[in-house]
Amino acid sequence: MKEREKQGVTRVKVVLTKEEAAQLLAICARGEERTVAEAVRRLKRSQTSRHGSSCGGWRPALEVIPEE
């Protein structure tokens, strides 16, 4: 068993823009949120209010895969 598994460590890969990363870091540095999850929720709320309501939700832009 790996050392990380013994300690209960979970690795998470997060994909952010530079602007989002800077905002998230600023939120954490100011100590406004106790957990990263709370900071991410705050970041999402601020983006939603800035870009308007997202009633339809996010939809991926995928290419059509032809059936053969």
TrEMBL record:
Residues 9-31 form the DUF7890 domain. Residues 45-68 are annotated as: Disordered. This is DUF7890 domain-containing protein. Transmembrane segments: none annotated. It comes from the Eukaryota.
